[in-house]
Amino acid sequence: MAERAFDIVINGGGMVGLALALALRPSGLRVAVVEARGAADWSAGRMDNRVSSLTLASQRMLQRLGVWSTLASARVSPFEAIHAWDAGGGRVRFHAGELGEPWLGHIVENGLLQQTLFAVASADDRLTVLAPATIAAASPDDAGQVQLRLEDGRRLSTRLLVGADGARSAVRDWAGIGVRRHGYGQQGLVATVRFAQAHGLVARQRFLPGGPLALLPLADGRCSIVWSQPDDEAANRLAMDDAAFHRQLEAAAGEVLGVVQQSESRAGFPLRALHAERYVSPGFALVGDAAHVIHPLAGQGVNLGFLDAAALAQLIGEAAAAGRDPVGLATLRRYERWRRGDNALMQTTMDGFHWLFSNRDPLRRMARNIGFELTDRLPPIKRRLMAHAVGLRGDLPMIAR
Ligand SMILES: Cc1cc2nc3c(=O)[nH]c(=O)nc-3n(C[C@H](O)[C@H](O)[C@H](O)COP(=O)(O)OP(=O)(O)OC[C@H]3O[C@@H](n4cnc5c(N)ncnc54)[C@H](O)[C@@H]3O)c2cc1C
To answer: What is the pTM of this model?
Structure first.
């Protein structure tokens, strides 16, 4: 079978891999995406129980990639406020008006976002999307290429193989890149829930001793919940009937939105942290969850992945325009220097929050209540924190500014 040659092959057409492919279009390089699942696997008709809270930086990026208007006309819910409070007292409230913005972010179903990105990428003749397809083997050769064999026998060659293939990245293994990982002994229990009261375009998070419960607003008035909790509690709550689950959820939410009228698609995801020891090696680069997985308590995971994609595409484009090797090790190292420190800082911050919040320790409870109250009463600190969290500050790539 004839071999097809590319400059860049992206393994994994998830949210981050597809965003990277779209961001690489202006570079003029030959780019392919290999995705294990086919288009039919993402049904836009059904409400997805996996959602992402997108920052303003991610929104701007998706606007420039030409996918935001399709998403916005489907099912995206903006939120104008964030209310966070501790079950033992102490609270902080953020409002978009404090930053002079209409919204603090948007809640988007992962399946819908993935399907929209997939449709735009598949329709663009500057990109090759191979799906469903899986790489069976990848090996660098002496000519500076990585030779790929797909499960169906097709052969590809590429100058750069990018791992956008999630936490269990095969590319990371082929590149010989190690990881540091730890578990939290928690699961993220997700479900789509209708409460008696409307969410009012507010994203809520209540910190409980077992872990935080997030109530994220959906476009149809329901909430998507992400309830981090110890593994054994999650196993019980996944097995119990709706009525019992609803009573426990109402109590966990502090009855902030009243009774639960209906819920569906309850599922649990083990929570863990992972960080690749390097993001690049000759012929290889990692983006998104292939490089870093963090606790979902601040809803930052995919947003970090989008910034990886934007940074890598920008550096590749700049190198190509300046006549340098766009996928050479110098470009790849620049990418690693740009993104690894920021991602490590976010991971450490999430671990710190987890340590501070997910327990009954009275001293830590006092510390977090003081922290909440101080943040709420000191507008400059509050604005700074908020601007960072929603993607208005930081070392942002051009298309996310
Ligand atoms: C409970 C929970 C709640 C979360 N909430 C949020 C939130 O509110 N906001 C937020 O920003 N983040 C959130 N996250 C994190 C977010 O879901 C991830 O960061 C995000 O999905 C990572 O995207 P990705 O494209 O890097 O990887 P993935 O979503 O894992 O995509 C990887 C893709 O690669 C494909 N693939 C894998 N292996 C292969 C292979 N060998 N060959 C071909 N294709 C392959 C897969 O089919 C998939 O399409 C949450 C996570 C959890 C667990």
So the answer is: 0.95
